[in-house]
Amino acid sequence: MSIGDKRAVILAGGISSRMKKSSTDPRMDQKLVRQSEERTKGMIEVGEGGRPFLDYLLNNMKHAGLRDIVIVIAEHDTELRQYYGSRDRDNDFHGLRVSYAIQRIPPGRKKPIGTSDALTQALLSRPDWETGDFIVCNSDNLYSIRALTMLLESDAPNALIDYDRAGLEFDQTRIAHFGITRKDKDGFVLEIVEKPKMEELEGLRSSDGTLRVSMNIFRLNYSMIFGPLKDCPENPVRQEKELVAAVTNMVRAHSQSLKALPLKEHVPDLTYKEDIAITREFLKKHFAIMKW
After folding, report:
1. pTM (2 decimals)?
2. Where do the domains of the chain lie, and which CATH numbers do they carry?
3. Distance CA 276, CA 292 (A)
């Protein structure tokens, strides 16, 4: 990625249906329970002094060298605009330029059409990015400075962080649902196998014997991914256009275009209500002082 291409898209336009499920966890702060049912996950105030989760991801992005950030938001989102700036483009937030792209819910649907559509809306909002690269990731995962830097420094056309499953501190049931990367002998991704069956696992091990998964953080070339995004098929079960499907189609059209960058570390995740208390403890331990 060139110096001028230090850009990122954060996907925050979903309806957070899993977070809205009820919980019997006695550690739950009732204020945060209400926020988890009313806000996008990145705006839940899990940090000290009511700092939202998304602040920590943006902080890591800034320390990795990213500067131009597009956040994909829902049509009626208010919390993000109130906090990060009301303008559509180039709100200054601790030296970051924060812009928004809107992901609307199509007529006849109750939720957005998926992560592929979300990224499409982001790229349509930034035609000035057409000749470059960008990082795209979820808003409910706290990716490390190291992971972001690895993507920025890779000289491959596109790249993803290839996480060792053994480094993720989740229960095995959750880990079993993560997509496993299948790669060629040179470490380029051939496909991401979603929810693999037990009998498939041995054949999906990397050359070092590890099982490695995608946590939905990529560095992508605008011109290479835009076509697969527009033509992305709808998943027949989930009825969503998913980013992983678009990336898979890009790889099929451009062989050896997506490099897997191996990394072993935990990625804090804010998917369910039960994750809130765990995330608060992680932030207290690792972000005692926020330095922008």
Report:
1. 0.94
2. 3-155+216-245+269-286 (3.90.550.10)
3. 23
Q: Give the CA distances from residue 242 to residues 60, 72, 127, 188, in Å, rounded to whole numbers and listed in that order.
A: 25, 15, 22, 20
Output the CA–CA distances (angstroms, integers) from residue 148 to 45, 107, 242, 261, in the order listed.
23, 36, 22, 11
Measured N-to-C along each axis, helices 243-253 and 222-230 cross at an angle, to the nearest 10 degrees, of: 120
The C-alpha atoms of residue 276 and residue 143 are separated, in whole angstroms, by 16
CB neighbours of residue 201 within 10 Å = 14
Strand residues in 211-284 grouped as ranges (E)? 212-221, 258-263
**Amino acid of residue 42:** G
For residue 247, the number of C-alpha atoms closer than 13 Å in the C-beta half-sphere is: 29
Tens of pLDDT along 209-250? 999 999 999 999 999 999 999 999 999 988 999 999 999 999
Place of tokens 């095995």: 172
**Residue-wise DSSP of 186-228:** TSBEEEEESS--GGGTGGG--TTS--EEEEEEEEEEHHHHHHH
The single-letter DSSP state of residue 42 is G
Count CB-CB contacts under 10 A for residue 130: 10
Q: Is 177 left (phi over 0), alpha (psi -120 to 50) or beta?
A: alpha
Q: Reduced to 3 states, what is the DSSP secondary structure of residue 281?
A: helix
For 99, the enclosing helix (H) or strand (E) is strand 96-103
pLDDT at 199: 81
**What confidence category does residue 3 fall into, taking pLDDT thresholds of 50, 70 and 90?**
very low
